[in-house]
Structures are given as structure tokens and as C-alpha cells.
Write a structure and sequence with these properties.
The chain has five domains: 26-109, Phosphorylase Kinase, domain 1, CATH 3.30.200; 116-179 and 187-285, Transferase(Phosphotransferase) domain 1 (Transferase(Phosphotransferase), domain 1, Orthogonal Bundle), CATH 1.10.510.10; 345-460, 3-Layer(aba) Sandwich (hypothetical protein tt1634), CATH 3.40.1520.20; 464-533, Histidine-containing Protein, Chain: A (2-Layer Sandwich), CATH 3.30.1340; 546-709, Coagulation Factor XIII, Chain A, domain 1, CATH 2.70.50. Helices cover 30% and strands 24% of the residues. It has 19 helices and 29 strands. The strands form seven sheets. A six-stranded antiparallel sheet has the order 1-2-3-4-6-5. Strand 18, helix 16 (508-522) and strand 19 (526-533) form a beta-alpha-beta unit. The radius of gyration is 36 Å and the shape is elongated. The two termini are 63 Å apart. 42% of the residues are buried.
């Protein structure tokens, strides 16, 4: 049964009640769901639009019960690793994430075009078309294998022909979104992953290596040529036996037959050794018979006749004194006839794994020109055999256009250029947003001047962003206590990761500046700032607070009128906040100091105070159920009855954020009782002086923000 087409074409399936996502839903504040592209037993695939960039993407989502299955999560992780591969023959992956409802989803390129499976359902594919596809897929495997990634599930439904062109075949993996009721099924688990019909023999034993993908490529070519899925067997035993034998390629024309036999040899030692070797072989065999004809010696009587006429002509020319002219005239008779390349190709790439060049050139001088351009762009001199001489160059500007295009790659950390006739695709990685924009514009302008159709996709790096680089950007904004990345990965942030910043920040304007500074530095990564917006007064005190755990103290907030706890810390006009400091009942020998930093520019010293000068922990509060409760802000009723010193209500003069701070110290924090209220600057200066003069005296700090609103 044909694949439902998750990556391809404009058509979408109508919504069903069981859809994971709904049309118009926005994931991660970025991806707006446009419709369903495919459904299967484990998940669904959607077309979506990136609301920020406008880019159309495909999103693969697992059903909730499979989102908790380690086997399927591992399959998603393995697929996401392909985002490290920058090659036009490999679909680009962007992000792997989880929704609040628990659905794991993967974001990737939307590729417009049919799969080989779709084409097989309509017609048999011809041998030359399949060899062009094989060449393109092998180039993609070269890039994937260089990253240590083995696809394990290569099959006709995982090879998509962009815009229907064989020369733009692209490797994808949408196995989980297929209809699992009929046809080849993708099996996942600890021992095997793939489709039995296309899997290499070693995969049945739980082993998969790079040559396993080559076997799958050969089986895919055979299936497409025959127009039917190969029969792998109906029982486990039959499947194993069949995999030990060569595939039946009778009737397949050469050189496709030889290629398939080489790719699908059951024994690894007999199989194609690498994807690079497959590309090299296809560079030779993906040509008409002209090359072989140019190399073959003549046979039979006709050959002898040609030899006799040639000998007679040589004798006549020699007698005429024309030996030198003859040498020049017949020099080309000893050269092979150049093959015709259709399409005319060139691929080039450069990155941490090295640089590579392959493709066509019309003559030796042009090949040298292209090699020089590649060396200038990469600093790597390609081998003389990197390019194959062939006729069929689209126009007389092609070589200079491509050479100029190679020059446009300079400055990119990684890049891959693929030219098919006068159509080109560029993927790359730039270290900054400005460089990505500059290169995109330059390449687009060059392509327009060259008369080429271009698709450009440059990601913004670096590929791995150190956590310290994020901290360095955040540090100038940390003016209100701790501010930084939450639970950062030890190795750093990969492309597509989400960076979460937590802590406190002074103003909304400062938050906006922090966001802009981070977005300029993090490249193609998501950013979420979950920082609390405070105010300048609170931040002035927070800046001098030592970074201590609140493991010995906590602060309880309640309502004076009802006595009920207030978990949010939000109070509205007319309400009466009540505050208690909580400590373990057996905690003694320490001193407690409590203040409220008000949003009016003042600090109120709540404990000690005029009525309660003692502030040794054992002398304050009351013990209930093993916990000491020290009330520092009372209800209005308590103060009216002479219980407690401080009480407050929320009014328009107190709207904003204030903070209760409790200090637990070995000896009295300041040594002397401070005034009932004082300026922020005065308190902050005194606290900073104590910290300098008596380091280590403070052992614990607890704080809570009171947010007063209309």
C-alpha cells in the first residue's frame, strides 16, 4: 500500500476525532498546525508553518501511549540525530520536543514530491532513472555514515523525489506514520528495526552497520524496477533462509543488475564496501555505452578493413611528407570518447568531518578550474579523480557559474552544495545570524545572475553552544540575584534545543534586552525566559545577598481576615497579608533577623523590633507540631488587641512587589537594633559591610515576594 505521504504534496487528510493535534494549534509557541499528512498505528504526521520564519515543516508526532515507550522514543532520538547531517540528499531535522499533554514530536523539512513507493504504485521505474536515484541516495548515505549514523530502514517509502525529479531524491524516515494494516511494516524494538523485505541479513541478528543501508538501497532499486515489494518470506524461518541467498535479478538489464547484485550480496565481504565506493562506481556506470565503445578494440573483418584503410592512409601521408600533420590530425583517435552526463551534476561539501567534491566537468581545464575553486573555498585540494569528464554541460557559463558559487561558501562553518543541471541546493551552518543572512543574500544574488534556480537553507550555529557562552550573555543582566540557564546539558546546547533562563530580573525592559542579546548568540535554538520581574528596590538588596540555601527556614503567607494560607503571594486591594517565618523546633543557638523590602524605597526591620528585642531563635515564636512559627506581620485584629507590632493592608500606595527576607545567623546579624524603617541604600550598605566583616556568620536565608495588585 502506498505511503500516505507525510512529507509530500499539498494534499492533506481531513481531521478525525482521534487526531493528536488540531488545525490551528500552535506547538512550542512556534509551529502552527495546518493539517494531517499521514496517519498510522503509532502516530501521525502534520504539515505546519513556523510562525516566526514562515517556513513550512513536517511534524511527526507519537500517540501518547507510544510517547512513553522507550523503543519508540529511541527511534525518534535516532532519527533526530540526522539533524547533524547537512546534505541536500538527506531531510533536515530541526527539533525533537514534547507537548504538555505528553506527545513526543519531531520537526523536519517538508519535502514536496512523491516517494519511490508512490511512483511504484503508478508505474515501473526505468533502469537509468533508478541509477540516478541510487547515485543521489548514495551521496546522502556518505554524509550520514560520516556522522556514524546508520539509517536501518531505507526503503521506497523513505526515498522522496523532490518535485518528482530523480536527481533530487532525498532520504527520509517516516516508518511510524505508515498505515500498518497492509504492506511492508517497520518493526521497532531492542533486536531489530527496519522492514524485513529490505533489511540486510545481519539486521535479523540485531546487527546494523553502514553496509546494511547499502543492501537496503539495492533491494529498493530491485523493487522499484520490478514494480512490486520483494517477498521476504511468510515465517521467521523462511525469512532467515531467504536472506542467506542472493536476490533474484534475472531480467534486470546491465549495469543496474550488476549494481544491485553488488549492493545486496548476503555476505558482508562480497557487498559494496562503502557508500563512497557506490558513488564512485555510479560515476562510471551512469553513462551511455560511448565510454566503453571508446575503450574497446575493434574485432573481426570490419576491424581489419578499418586497419587496412588506416595503414594505406598513413603510407600515402608519409610519402607526401605529411608525417607531422598526420600526428596532430590523428592524436584524438587514441583518446576515449567522453560519455554524456544527464543530468549534469556537481556536489561539494565541507565541515568538521572533512571536505569532498564529486561530479562532472566538460574538459580537463574546466575540471582544474572547479578543483581550484573548491580548494579556495575549503583549503583542501581534491584529488585529480574527483570530477568525471563528460559532455552534456547545460551551457557554456556552467563551469564559471559553479566555480563562483563555490566561492560563495566561504565563511560558513559547514556547507553542502548540490548542482543538478541549472538547479542547485545549498545547505549550511553559519556562526551568526548576520553571516547567515549575508550568505543567503549573496548566494541568492549569484544564482539569479547565473540563471540558476536555487534552494538555500542556512542554519545558524554554532552546532554545539557551550553553557558558559549562555552564562556570559546573561551575567550583565543578573542584577537582581541569581539568573541563568535552568538544568543546562553538560555537553552544551545542540541545534534545536530549548534554552530556559530562570531567576529574577529588574524590569520588563531589561528582560527584553536580555532576550535580544540571547537570540543574537544562540542561533537556531528555542529560548524561554521564565524570570520573575521585580523592581529596582528589591534588586538593590538582592544584589548584596549571599547565595545560601533556605534549607533551615521557610516563609508562610496567609490572609489576616480568614487565616487561610496564600500560596501565590498575590494580594489585592483591601486585603491584609500575614507573614510567618518557619523553622524546625529543635533548631537553637542561632539568631533570626527579618525585614521587608518595600516597593516605596524603604526597608522595615520586622524582627527585632521595639516590642520584641530578643531575636534568638529559641526565644521567639511558638512551637506547633515540631515546627517553630514566628509571626512577623500580623492581622489587623491582632494589632488592635495588642498582639504584635506590624500589620498592613493593600492600597493604591502599596501596589507592586515587596519582599520578606529572613536571615539566620550564628550571632546577631547587626549586633544592634536598627531603626524601624530605613532607606534601601542604607540597609544594603550595612548588609554589605557585615558580609565583609563577618564572613560565614549568615547560615541560611529565606525570602518570599508579596505581589500587591488592585
Amino acid at each position: 500500500m502506498p505511503d500516505p505521504g507525510p512529507l509530500r504534496g499539498p494534499g492533506m487528510i481531513g481531521p478525525l476525532p482521534g487526531d493528536i493535534f488540531r488545525q490551528g494549534q500552535v506547538l512550542n509557541h512556534t509551529y502552527e498546525i495546518e493539517g494531517v499528512l499521514g496517519r498510522g498505528g503509532t502516530g501521525e504526521v502534520y504539515r505546519a508553518k513556523n510562525q516566526i520564519s514562515g517556513r513550512i515543516v513536517a511534524i511527526k508526532a507519537l500517540n501518547a501511549r507510544f510517547s512513553g515507550n522507550d523503543d519508540y522514543i529511541q527511534l525518534m532520538r535516532r532519527e533526530e540525530q540526522m539533524r547533524d547531517v547537512l546534505n541536500d540528499a538527506v531531510v533536515r531535522y530541526t527539533e525533537c520536543s514534547r507537548t504538555d499533554q505528553g506527545h513526543v514530536f519531531l520537526v523536519m523539512d517538508f519535502i514536496d514530491g512523491p516517494s519511490m513507493n508512490d511512483v511504484m504504485a503508478r508505474r515501473r521505474m526505468d533502469a537509468r532513472e533508478l541509477m540516478i536515484i541510487a547515485h543521489r541516495v548514495a551521496e546522502g548515505l556518505v554524509a550520514a555514515h560520516a556522522r556514524g549514523i546508520v539509517h536501518r530502514d531505507l526503503s521506497p517509502d523513505n526515498v522522496v523525489l523532490r518535485d518528482g525529479e530523480a536527481g533530487r531524491a532525498t532520504i527520509i524516515d517516516f516508518g511510524i506514520a505508515k498505515d500498518t494494516s497492509t504492506g511492508a511494516k517497520t518493526i521497532v524494538g531492542n533486536e531489530f528495526a527496519g522492514k524485513y523485505e529490505y533489511a540486510a541479513p545481519e539486521q535479523l541478528e540485531g546487527r546494523a552497520e553502514k553496509r546494511s543501508d547499502l543492501y537496503a538501497l539495492g533491494a529498493t532499486l530491485l523493487a522499484a524496477f520490478r514494480g512490486q515489494v520483494p517477498f521476504a518470506g511468510s515465517t521467521p524461518g523462511e525469512i532467515v533462509r531467504r536472506k542467506q541467498s542472493r536476490l533474484d535479478t534475472e531480467g534486470v538489464p546491465e549495469p543496474l543488475k550488476g549494481l544491485i547484485d553488488w549492493l545486496t550480496a548476503p555476505a558482508l565481504a562480497d557487498r559494496a564496501p562503502s557508500a563512497e565506493a557506490v558513488v564512485a562506481r555510479l560515476n562510471e556506470v551512469l553513462r551511455p555505452n560511448a565510454r566503453r565503445a571508446g575503450r574497446q578494440a575493434p574485432h573481426g573483418g570490419e576491424s581489419r578493413k578499418r586497419g587496412n584503410w588506416a595503414l594505406l592512409l598513413v603510407l600515402l601521408l608519409g610519402l607526401a611528407g605529411g608525417g607531422a600533420w598526420y600526428a596532430g590530425l590523428f592524436e584524438g583517435w587514441n583518446q576515449p570518447v567522453l560519455p554524456v552526463a544527464a543530468p549534469y551534476l556537481l556536489t561539494a561539501s565541507a565541515g568538521p568531518q572533512g571536505a569532498a567534491l564529486s561530479g562532472n566537468a566538460p574538459d580537463a581545464g574546466s575540471a582544474q578550474r572547479l578543483r581550484q575553486a573548491f580548494a579556495g573555498a575549503t583549503g583542501t585540494t581534491p584529488p585529480e579523480t574527483a570530477l568525471t569528464l563528460a559532455t552534456g554541460v547545460p551551457d557554456d557559463r556552467w563551469v564559471e557559474n559553479v566555480a563562483a558559487g563555490l566561492g560563495q561558501m566561504q565563511g560558513l562553518a559547514e556547507w553542502a552544495l548540490s548542482v543538478t543541471d541549472n538547479t542547485l541546493a545549498v545547505t549550511g551552518l553559519a556562526d551568526s545570524r548576520d553571516l547567515a543572512a549575508d550568505r543567503t543574500t549573496a548566494i541568492s544574488d549569484w544564482a539569479g545572475q547565473a540563471g540558476m534556480t536555487a534552494r538555500i537553507d542556512i542554519a545558524i550555529g554554532p552546532r554545539l553552544l557551550p553553557v558558559q557562552a549562555v552564562r556570559d550573555v546573561v551575567q550583565p543582566f543578573a542584577l537582581c540575584g541569581p539568573l541563568g540557564p535552568d538544568a543546562p546539558p553538560e555537553a552544551g546546547y545542540a541545534l534545536g534545543d530549548t534554552i530556559v533562563i530562570t531567576g529574577a530580573i529588574e524590569t520588563e525592559a531589561a528582560r527584553g534586552k536580555l532576550q535580544q542579546a540571547l537570540e543574537d548568540a544562540i542561533g537556531d535554538r528555542q529560548l524561554r525566559i521564565d524570570a520573575t520581574i521585580l523592581n529596582a528596590d528589591l534588586c538593590a538588596v538582592r544584589r548584596v545577598l549571599p547565595q545560601l540555601e533556605s534549607d533551615r527556614l521557610s516563609i508562610w503567607l496567609g490572609d489576616g481576615a480568614t487565616g487561610q494560607v496564600n500560596l501565590s503571594g498575590i494580594y489585592h486591594a483591601g486585603e491584609n497579608p500575614v507573614v510567618e517565618v518557619l523553622a524546625p523546633a529543635d533548631l537553637t543557638g542561632l539568631s533570626l533577623w527579618v525585614v521587608v523590602v518595600d516597593n516605596t524605597g524603604a526597608v522595615y526591620n520586622l524582627l527585632p523590633n521595639l516590642k520584641q528585642e530578643a531575636h534568638d531563635l529559641a526565644d521567639v515564636g511558638a512551637v506547633e507540631n515540631g515546627q517553630r512559627r514566628i509571626r512577623v506581620l500580623h492581622s489587623l485584629e491582632d494589632v488592635k488587641n495588642g498582639i504584635g507590632t506590624f500589620a498592613t493592608t493593600v492600597d493604591e500606595d502599596s501596589f507592586g512587589k515587596s519582599e520578606i527576607i529572613a536571615f539566620l545567623s550564628k550571632t546577631s546579624l547587626f549586633g544592634i537594633r536598627r531603626p524601624k524603617d530605613e532607606s534601601i541604600a542604607s540597609f544594603a550598605e550595612a548588609l554589605a559591610q557585615i558580609l565583609r566583616d563577618e564572613p560565614g556568620n549568615i547560615v541560611s536565608i529565606a525570602s518570599r515576594v508579596i505581589d500587591a495588585r488592585p
